[in-house]
Amino acid sequence: MPRSSQIIPTYLHPHIETYINDNTLFTEETAAADEGVRFISVFMSPKGRDGQIISMASKSDYIAEFGQPNYEKYGQPGYMPVAILSQTNTKVWCMRIMPPDATYSNIVILAKVKPGTPADGENPMVPTTVMFEKASAASVSSEDDFKTKMAALASANEDPDIDGFIKYPIIGFMCQGRGTYGDKFRVRFTPSLASNDENGYVNYRLEVYNSESSLTLAETFTGSLDIDAVYSNNSLFIQDLVNDPESGSSKINAIINTGSLTSVYNHYAAVVGEDAVGYDKFDLFQNMTSGGNVVYKVETEAGATSAKPIDIGLAEAHSLLGGSNGIFDNLSDSVARSTAIETAYTKAYEGKTDPRILSKRATPAEFILDANYPGDVKDAIISLIATRSDAFGSIDAGIITTATEAKNWSDTMKTKGDFLFEKTCQHYKIRDPYTGKIVPMTTTYHFASNIASHIDSFGNNTPFVGKDFARITGHIKNTLLPSVDADDLELKEYLYNNRINYYETLDENVFAKGAQGTSQNVWSDLSEISNVLVVLEMKRMLETAVQSKLYSFAEAEDRQKFTEMGNRMFANYKGTKVRDFTISFEMNPWEEERSILHCYLGVTFRTIAKRGIIEIDINKRV
After folding, report:
1. What is the pLDDT of residue 4?
2. Which pLDDT does position 299 carry in this prediction?
3. What is the distance between the alpha carbons of residues 368 and 42, in angstroms, rounded to a whole number?
4. Of 94, 221, 324, 491, which sees the most CB atoms within 10 A?
5. What is the pLDDT of residue 28?
6. Consecutive H or E run containing 560
7. In whole numbers, what is the pLDDT of the chain averaged over residues?
8. In this structure, are strands 252-256 and 166-175 parallel, antiparallel, or unpaired?
């Protein structure tokens, strides 16, 4: 086709110019990585890093990090990620909550140095003597708090004790999550002689053990105590290795006091003088000799000191201590504990614990589900869903048992409605897969247990409703409450008009979701969850596409190419996920003047049959 812009000849004299228009240009495209069905989940758990969002893509990884859920102690929320990750192609953004008074397990290795003296002609050289001790800082509430308390363990003004020893805190380790579980971790230092030969520094092997069930090696790191140690453009400093956010430890953080290390080295060098090895060759934990004489010795026997020194390389390793679960373990004051739990959950969903939960780009997700949370937490979830506007939510009524309670709850929730979430009012009982006890779960647990598999098998455009798609399984017989029979027409009408979804009894011990309405208080195509899931999917795709076009040229021909791209993007939606769609990228004069790229997407959904009429004619025989 001809060019859209006017062709102006290069010369005025009579001549011919030829232009070749390549109308076969296209952008090479590859399929976007399938991130699976993504959820956001906040919970209490017996262990794991807390106060931060952590991505989990398998049930085994979740259990390894956070431990098995415990209904009696922590309720339903911890079971939701297990239910989700039991399906294929799922991911959960997980956040463990803890109270403000919870503390971190930790250990500090201290060097106790008795300064030596050099030979002065008449008096022989006295070697520098070093012993190592361990300590645990009390009530550690943060990494900065640990650094402060670790430094406070040093001898004041480097004054020797009664035996002539000066105390220097060398290295500290603190668990990455708060709670008593951190007391199960242990650390051990051993020399790494092979690494010494390879990179020229004094290297140590740091081993992290977990003694939860048996003493198990969890992590190892090999590096140097020299802050300037670098090999092949990579830091060898153990603190850098352990604390690396991508390749470092998922159990502990390390704090090395380089000032203390320098002080110990200076004590050694003061004895040896110009024959001292360089700082990068100084081995803190090993005896050192010069000219056949011991100039720096490490003692592991008590000697004259009152405290027994430790062996850094002890086979059993050295335990972290001082972890506390705070008020979450205060079972004697149930009101204070419940209040603290509700506060922690609310802060998490409000983004006050880890702000990334508010970001649809940092933590993209398709679903945010209630899990029998307290009322204020439900409100925080609804606000989060509205703020993000990228994920669908499900809000439950908690554990209620009668139709009257369901009606009353629906009345209190009338003002809380949006196409971005549903409201549901029932629960049923299951046998806890970890304890064998019978425990109640709201129907959001059924949603969490099945929606990803449903989407994988039938697509998000297929309504998750009815016996074929949304039947409850794995439940204790006849425990669905409040009971809603298929023939309870008045009750179902009341719930439906109040935008409450319900599971109904279809046969003996057969229960299935009977409605898939969103909670918006008007009727439209966005009153159907399946339609909303498709719209949110298309919205996410368009946001990514438009974001990629910012600061690209957007002339008329460019906008036409963007439109063609959009048509290709949704080509397979037509006739499947939607009846039809139109898309265009445009700029009216006002928008073009202000460099605003405007994408128009029009969607027509396929018709869904929600009600049926059966008409039977009895005709005359003659």
Report:
1. 59
2. 86
3. 10
4. 94
5. 45
6. helix 556-569
7. 92
8. antiparallel
In the 3-class helix/strand/coil scheme, how is 498-542 assigned residue by residue? CCEECEEEEECCEEEECCCECCCCCCCHHHEHHHHHHHHHHHHHH
Q: Is the pTM of this model over 0.70?
A: yes
Strand partners, 207: 188, 220
User: How far lies 385's CA from each of 320, 374, 379, 494, 529, in Å?
Assistant: 40, 17, 10, 26, 15
- Cα–Cα distance, 570 to 345 (Å, whole number): 38
Mean pLDDT of 252-266: 95
Q: Which residues contact 312 (CB under 8 A, 6 or more apart)?
A: 109, 132, 188, 189, 190, 285
Angle made by CA atoms 39, 45, 48, in degrees to the nearest 5: 85
And the tokens for 331?
């079972």
Q: pLDDT tens for residues 40-88? A: 999 999 999 999 999 999 999 999 999 999 999 999 999 999 999 999 9
Q: What is the dihedral of CA 118, 119, 124, 129, to 10 degrees?
A: 10
Contacts of 190 (CB under 8 A, 6+ apart): 204, 205, 207, 312, 313
Q: How far apart are CA 492 and CA 506, in angstroms?
A: 14
What would the DSSP string read from start to end of 257-324? Answer: -HHHHHHHHHHHHHHHGGGPPPGGG--TTS-EEETTEEEEEEE-S-TTSSSPP--TT-TT-EE-B--B
Alpha-carbon distances, residue 117 vs 125, 128, 164, 524 (angstroms): 6, 7, 13, 88
From the list 550, 561, 604, 562, the residue with the least C-alpha distance to 582 is: 604
The residue type of 480 is L
pLDDT at 30: 43
Joined tokens for residue 379: 């409100």
Which amino acid appears at position 502 of this protein? Y
Residue 288 φ then ψ, to 5° = -130, 145
> Residues 6 or more apart from 253 whose CB is under 8 A from it?
143, 173, 174, 176, 242, 243
Which H or E element spans position 545? helix 529-549
Question: In the structure, what pLDDT confidence band is assigned to residue 291 with cuts at 50, 70 and 90?
Answer: confident
Confidence of residue 31 (pLDDT cuts 50, 70, 90): very low
Q: What is the pLDDT of residues 578-591, one digit of tens each?
A: 999 999 999 999 99
With a CB cutoff of 8 Å and minimum separation 6, the contacts of 421 are 382, 385, 392, 393, 394, 395, 518, 519
Q: What is the pLDDT of residue 331?
A: 86
- CA distance linking residue 228 with residue 269, whole number of Å: 19
Residue 475 β-bridge partners = 430
355: tokens are 């702000």
Alpha carbons 72 and 404: distance in angstroms, whole number: 28
Q: Which has the closest alpha carbon to 54: 43, 615, 46?
A: 43
